[in-house]
Amino acid sequence: xxxxxxxxxxxxxxxxxxxxxxxxxxxxxxxxxxxxxxxxxxxxxxxxxxxxxxxxxxxxxxxxxxxxxxxxxxxxxxxxxxxxxxxxxxxxxxxxxxxxxxxxxxxxxxxxxxxxxxxxxxxxxxxxxxxxxxxxxxxxxxxxxxxxxxxxxxxxxxxxxxxxxxxxxxxxxxxxxxxxxxxxxxxxxxxxxxxxxxxxxxxxxxxxxxxxxxxxxxxxxxxxxxxxxxxxxxxxxxxxxxxxxxxxxxxxxxxxxxxxxxxxxxxxxxxxxxxxxxxxxxxxxxxxxxxxxxxxxxxxxxxxxxxxxxxxxxxxxxxxxxxxxxxxxxxxxxxxxxxxxxxxxxxxxxxxxxxxxxxxxxxxxxxxxxxxxxxxxxxxxxxxxxxxxxxxxxxxxxxxxxxxxxxxxxxxxxxxxxxxxx
Amino acid sequence: xxxxxxxxxxxxxxxxxxxxxxxxxxxxxxxxxxxxxxxxxxxxxxxxxxxxxxxxxxxxxxxxxxxxxxxxxxxxxxxxxxxxxxxxxxxxxxxxxxxxxxxxxxxxxxxxxxxxxxxxxxxxxxxxxxxxxxxxxxxxxxxxxxxxxxxxxxxxxxxxxxxxxxxxxxxxxxxxxxxxxxxxxxxxxxxxxxxxxxxxxxxxxxxxxxxxxxxxxxxxxxxxxxxxxxxxxxxxxxxxxxxxxxxxxxxxxxxxxxxxxxxxxxxxxxxxxxxxxxxxxxxxxxxxxxxxxxxxxxxxxxxxxxxxxxxxxxxxxxxxxxxxxxxxxxxxxxxxxxxxxxxxxxxxxxxxxxxxxxx
Amino acid sequence: xxxxxxxxxxxxxxxxxxxxxxxxxxxxxxxxxxxxxxxxxxxxxxxxxxxxxxxxxxxxxxxxxxxxxxxxxxxxxxxxxxxxxxxxxxxxxxxxxxxxxxxxxxxxxxxxxxxxxxxxxxxxxxxxxxxxxxxxxxxxxxxxxxxxxxxxxxxxxxxxxxxxxxxxxxxxxxxxxxxxxxxxxxxxxxxxxxxxxxxxxxxxxxxxxxxxxxxxxxxxxxxxxxxxxxxxxxxxxxxxxxxxxxxxxxxxxxxxxxxxxxxxxxxxxxxxxxxxxxxxxxxxxxxxxxxxxxxxxxxxxxxxxxxxxxxxxxxxxxxxxxxxxxxxxxxxxxxxxxxxxxxxxxxxxxxxxxxxxxxxxxxxxxxxxxxxxxxxxxxxxx
Lengths: 422, 359, 382
Known about the structure:
The structure holds three protein chains of three kinds.
Chain A: H1 2-10, H2 22-62, H3 76-82, H4 91-106, H5 110-120, H6 124-135, H7 142-149, H8 156-166, H9 172-177, E1 180-182, E2 188-190, H10 198-229, H11 232-243, H12 250-261, H13 266-274, H14 289-313, H15 317-325, H16 330-358, H17 362-367, H18 375-385, H19 389-413
Antiparallel strand pairs in A: 1-2
Helix pairs in contact in A: 2-19, 3-8, 4-6, 5-6, 5-8, 10-11, 10-14, 10-16, 12-14, 14-16, 15-16, 16-19, 18-19
Chain B: H1 2-19, E1 24-28, H2 31-49, E2 53-57, H3 63-71, E3 78-82, H4 83-91, H5 112-115, E4 126-139, H6 150-153, E5 163-166, H7 172-179, H8 187-191, H9 194-205, E6 211-214, H10 219-225, E7 231-235, H11 236-246, E8 250-265, H12 273-283, H13 286-292, E9 299-300, E10 334-336, H14 339-358
Parallel strand pairs in B: 1-2, 1-3, 5-6, 5-7, 8-10
Antiparallel strand pairs in B: 3-8, 4-7, 4-8, 4-9
Helix pairs in contact in B: 2-13, 4-14, 7-9
Chain C: H1 3-8, E1 23-30, E2 39-46, E3 51-55, H2 62-70, E4 77-82, E5 85-86, E6 97-100, H3 112-122, H4 127-140, H5 158-170, E7 176-180, H6 188-205, E8 208-213, H7 216-222, E9 225-230, E10 233-238, H8 240-245, H9 250-255, E11 260-270, E12 273-278, E13 283-288, E14 297-302, E15 308-309, E16 318-329, E17 333-340, E18 343-351, E19 364-369, E20 374-377
Helix pairs in contact in C: 3-4, 3-5, 4-5
């Protein structure tokens, strides 16, 4: 003890009674409790890592890496990489291609290669598979021989498509996700106007998500206020009504909206009965953007109400009373005192609804019609139908980057620690 | 102690379940379609071989097969797929090659190679079972003098009202060209040119404002029944089902039908490959295919089956023969979906179609 | 002691001509459920510039009265006037009444200065005026040294928040300020300090204050008059000294300060003095305050510091037997608990002066008091 005091006086590092430096001792003590805490979360952490984060990262990697061509065609990739993408393909390249076609047919991988090149150049699939069937019998000079089999081999655009496909690490899919084309010459140019769909869809996804967020806020705010201010028994009953939709599947709720909103549906029948809508020109409220907006707003409403409610519940009624006693009218009281205190709930609810909305897909798929589709419907399409998983990964990655950007923006403007989920 | 016994018992049961694994897992589309396969294929197969079959449903597409094959954990032995998916599964190496010599000759002795309808048995890793068709239908109780031709579907003046179309370029572009006067056997040649594509989209443009788009096969009969559309394209089996089982007053217009196939594929690395091959040979024999046609109005892929088609299984007296897409009266102006064309062009045409939709 | 008598009791007429009826409750009743009355027929006049405290246990109706005055509750019956004007139908924000809440109710999203500026901004004062008044108000509560104005309420201690709340209720110069147990959340020392501060501010501003508390020492320290509430009724309305020394009924005697109660029966009443036989048979005389006839049960009230132990018989009216049970040393005085007339909670407080006698438990003594210090009050069960 005395020595420790001496050292303190001398300005040396603090030590515990047994002489170990205090910092190290503290670190040891902390280490044990930290390990114990880690042990508790380890199973969940391992699960999330293995079942979610890792697959997501691996899948995202597909958006920039695709070795379908390079790993199955041993001879052409090197030559294609050297080729400038503009000049006439050489006999050497044709010869290598024939060797690769024979190889790929033997390994039964020609279909995959053909499908990959077809994504860059429509028609390449049949050109590849048919030529591969006859490649065994071709003789030099291979250029003329191949063109003899299929005159598409003279099309430099096919070769440019092959050059792109042969490059495993590629910006092609992200370019495609943003309606651009990565060309064989290394440029990124705009996609044909009549095929530009993704940017439009991203924008529409944002628009729908924004409108849905706004609509849930406008509809949910008064309900949350009512819930927070009514006597407990009444408000609990109301809360159950708010949560009721969670007990039925999203599919059922969406289908219910179809029955409500379709042109021979309940709402239109009512409108015709009242005389607002003429029978031969019923309102189209479903299978379009309106339908998507209505159904999504309904389904996402609880996600806005609950955070708002939990925040409003914590606002003491004395704030409102104080403001009124200080001379504020009802509106001023609301706008300057009550409303600012609900901002954390608005932030949480809006972020929750927006992020859920941006990835929504079942509802728009069912009631979206032609102009109510969102980007997730296309991710689904490329996952399940076209099997273009790389493009799906690029679209998903773009969406993810965008959501992270919004999150960052939110943090800058509102502050993430300002958010209250309950 | 009790808990451990319970856990032990449960895991023993789980193990037993795994050990007694089904002899064959067959995956199909569910509903009336799977029922027709169970009645016509599965039950006779089990009766003959003693092998049990587990029937699973899926929603089409190759995503699950691709995931299973890539993960090296294939659980399905046999999958019923559309032609385009069969071709793609072959191309992508997701399906086993099937030696066509295992297929039995027809009941009338015709060798299998010539018994299957031309153009149906050309995919090396798939064997066709049925022919289904995209047709269009209308509610005869609302239109006494209904449409007759594919051109009528696109004629809003003569037949006003909403139209139902599948939200996909497939079949729509072909029908548009046929309605615009292109002969069935020239449709894909025209569609192969960019002018042809423009022409098809221009024809679709003429009814775009009146179109209600559907995605699932169950939707079109519902749209018709609800009066949401005056006429809609649909899968012929769905409309037949609404007419035969629910007595709906729907009429099918066969003119300009676009027919397609469903086929068996065996996912690469299927656990019971030999049994699956046996099942493929068994189920695509003349009698089995003819038997299936009693349960659902899809045409058998074998010519030798046609004469054996009987009555609707649950409604004796309703002959199934005239309900087949392949019945001579229905088959006059019919177009086979060209999988090769679509395999080559679907990326481009899908993007174009979706852009067109969004405009 | 009932209301009419209480309000009839004279308050000193203000010399400066300020209204003695600045706030008037006229036959006010309040019920929440339509079955029971929380406030029963309240009549009360509060003079301008007065510091009036509503004191009572929880549920006595005092807070309800305050809320009716502020406008957050409506009177079920009766009329409330402010400066001669009926205010029953005036919404709270038009009443111009400042209010301090128990929970402070400072707006957490505004700084101290913004909180104070709020009532001025809603009154559309010019920016310069707002700044000047905010500064003056902060100076008044001794928080004007500049470091506080920019802080959020959450960055202040409880006492500082209370000062800000006080400043905010005063900054728009209301003529009436209501305070609802404003010191309830503070620790004892700070609470006492703030009591003086509020009292000084009241004196220097001349504002009328209606103060609600359940803490009797707070009420006695600060008020001009105290209205003791119980069961929806004002039990007594008086200045602090009167309240303590001249309780008019047993509730007030027991609620305000420490009290010895002795139960007995009235033998006779003459000239305002009642002869009472205690339950153990001893006879004493007491001022007949709240008894009317012989034979009535009564509670006698004697303050502990007015009792003497083994007194000089000439200075007290009479003495009774006492048995010392417990002696507690408290520094400046000594509390002796003893058994008197069957009641073992009889307390005697003696000053700890030089040569004061020390007692020990078990000792038998005589205790006595003057007749004027013993009040015969109404019988109260329990």
